[in-house]
Design brief:
Length: 315
């Protein structure tokens, strides 16, 4: 009888969403627009880089890989959010919850690893420009991109498998807008100390990654400030300004979410912070990478209007 009770919870209920009659549709359409923008914007960047030979260099190859990951990163959570906003029953199965958590955080870890690679790439380009092409070879870039993906997809597997073996016998309400480690572990009928251990492990991973990237960019900025000419400083800074902005947006929101330790937020701020790094950060990334980048804007125009671009020289 006890074993039956321990395995009773087979689905979870999200409590972070407003009911349909309480204005769920008011959130549905803005979120749908953001999701469509994220998918279209990041795919445009991905295909623009792949199809324009002028952008076949390490920096843009890493950006295109990052943009491709962003599409799947948001797809892991936003479609289910949209469904919950217009559904009376805001539930997810145990298997669905574990899969959502795995893909969301695996892709997030992959992006974190790739942001580290991108910081190292800019470090070599700015601090050791004469050896850049001999160091950042196409083969090494492909290995770094593939390594980031393999690392991200494998590092969380043991933790997800371990969580799948835990008994869930109590309440089944997840106080969040998607499946996440801490809200889910709070529902497990097991020692609460595992939550603290898990929080510390995740915090260390975020801090170490953030520290490596921060040190790289601090060194880069130091070298840029030492360039004699103002034009040279402007040109050098323009090559890494977008990377720094994306890094601050991504790791800033992640830090707010996962480096809280004993601090607690109201349900509103919990949902707001979760939306920042799961929705708003991917929304701004296509804008950041293309807004002030002439080469990227030209490549996107060429992708969208090939005949117009190709017919200009023949006039």
């Amino acid at each position: 009888m006890e074993g039956a009770n321990l395995s009773a919870v087979m689905e979870f209920v999200f409590t972070g969403f407003p009911q349909l009659q309480d204005g769920g549709l008011l959130y549905f359409f803005p979120l749908l627009f953001i999701y469509a923008f994220v998918v279209v914007g990041n795919l445009l960047i991905f295909f623009a880089v792949r199809m324009d030979a002028r952008l076949h260099n390490p920096m843009y190859n890493f950006i295109s890989t990052f943009s491709f990951l962003e599409v799947w990163y948001t797809t892991a959570t936003i479609p289910k959010m949209l469904s919950n906003l217009i559904s009376e029953k805001k539930t997810i199965s145990m298997t669905g919850c574990l899969l959502q958590m795995y893909f969301f955080h695996s892709l997030g870890n992959t992006e974190g690893a790739l942001l580290t690679v991108m910081a190292i790439d800019r470090y070599v380009a700015i601090c050791n420009p004469l050896r850049y092409l001999t160091i950042m070879t196409p083969r090494l870039c492909a290995q770094l991109s593939a390594g980031s993906c393999i690392f991200g997809l494998l590092i969380l597997l043991p933790e997800i498998v371990w969580i799948s073996t835990l008994p869930f016998c109590g309440p089944n309400q997840i106080h969040q807008i998607f499946c996440d480690f801490t809200p889910l572990l709070r529902l497990a009928c097991t020692d609460a100390s595992v939550i603290l251990v898990q929080d510390v492990i995740h915090a260390l991973a975020i801090l170490i990654t953030g520290l490596i990237i921060s040190l790289s960019y601090i060194r880069i900025v130091t070298v840029i400030l030492g360039i004699p000419s103002a034009e040279g400083r402007k040109k050098a800074f323009s090559t890494c300004a977008a990377h720094i902005a994306v890094f601050l947006l991504f790791f800033g929101s992640v830090a707010l979410m996962y480096l809280r330790f004993s601090a607690t937020y109201t349900p509103f701020w919990d949902a707001a912070i979760a939306l920042t790094f799961s929705v708003l950060s991917p929304f701004f990334n296509p804008i950041i990478y293309s807004l002030r980048n002439k080469d990227m804007k030209d490549a996107i125009k060429k992708l969208l209007c090939p005949q117009k671009v190709f017919n200009v020289p023949g006039r």
